Amino acid sequence: MKAVTLALAATLIGSTAFAQTTIIRERPANETTVIHKESSDGVSVTKKVESTGSVGCETKSVTKTNEDGDTVKKTKTDC
Questions:
Q1: Residue ranges per domain, the chain?
Q2: Nearest CA to 35 among 47, 49, 51?
Q3: pTM of structure
Q4: Tens of pLDDT along 18-73?
Q5: In angstroms, how far is CA 29 from the centroid of its own chain?
Q6: Cα separation of 73 and 77, whole Å?
């Protein structure tokens, strides 16, 4: 009986080492963040992140414009 109690105590102590904390952060609907950077070589980068609706979709757009005015835009949506 003493061995069973000791084994149970060791199991409880060992299982607490694997405790994890989960943080859930909800973003408000229709939140938009825009970051604009210009480098010294004339490249302009604009990053825009939009969170839409209650379904949790997020759209990320990155637009790069060089010194000649050439523009490249990439968009990615995660739901």
A1: 2-78
A2: 47
A3: 0.53
A4: 445 666 555 566 778 888 888 878 888 888 888 876 677 888 999 999 888 899 99
A5: 16
A6: 14
